[in-house]
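Hi L.,

You mentioned the student needs an example of a multi-chain input paired with its predicted structure. This one should do, with 334 residues in total across all chains.
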Amino acid sequence: MNKQRYGLSLVEIVLSMGILAMIMLPVFMTFSSGNTNIQVTEGEFRAHTAALELMEQIISLPFNLIRPGSYAPAQIIDGGAFAGGPVLFRLTSDPDLKHSLKIEEVKRDNKILFKKITVTVAYPSARASDRLREFTLKTLVANENI
Amino acid sequence: MKIFNRGFTLVEILVVCGVSAIFLGVAIMLFTNFRQGYSRSESVAVLMQESALFLARLRTDMNNAVLSGPQGGIENQIQATPEQLRLNVYSSGQGRILPVIYRYVAAGSGGSIIRKEAEGGEKVLIKNHVASLAWQMQLERFATAGSGTFRIGVAVAMQLKTATGNEKPFAIKTCVFPARLNRQLNTP
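Structure written out for the whole complex:
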């Protein structure tokens, strides 16, 4: 049987296009992941701004008023009492963000040298997403009374 | 049996053209979506950077702000009006206290935020991107032992928009509490 072929068959072309599509798919997925990363950066920026706001209002207080303890997101609300009052939380950030706060004492020779403040803000990993990411900010406040 | 296949039939070409059109259509659609998304994200990234720079500048100035006189007069020393925010800042470079003024110049196409330090020149912090801006000085007094505890802050709410104005404005709302200044304020 003498079979001569001068062109490609339909099956060959469709197959090659399928392979091409499979090659192009990761390329387009790379594009979309770049956009997703910028959205994550926006969320992180908002979380950073919110964390800084909470951190600054705590470290603005006199050393003895920065009382140690842990505060869950439900306790950190605008107008809510910090450490049982009279100081109040002031939060202007958006409701998608969940704050938590931890204050610990750093002692040496029974003297409180520092207070370690840890603020964590949980934010949605993407718009309208239930998955959360966390941004944490830590600082030390020195005891100016010793 | 001899088979001479000299090319494609009309049906084959039509089918291949149809499949190619679908494939290219999807590819072009994906690419167009990506371009739009990228353009939007890039604009938002620029706005984020500008707002971060402005807030950082304001935070530094507030921390270096100098208050003189009785605590009751704080409101008069950091003055916030819709058009400007004025405070006295200690300049370590010049070794003296200088007035610093932040001005908001509203414009239909996009306003600007300008910082001016004493006799020095003006520096534009955000140019033609501000859709709206409100800043307000807040002074709280908590009933604690002695004369109470003061906490000063400047609440900032602003919306930034892209040069084209087609995208959704980037909104940021926060309050800047100058820790150093507040701690100084409450020092017995």
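You could point out the following to them. Helices of chain B lie at 10-63, 74-77, 179-185. The first strand of chain B starts at residue 2 and ends at 5.

Best wishes,
N.
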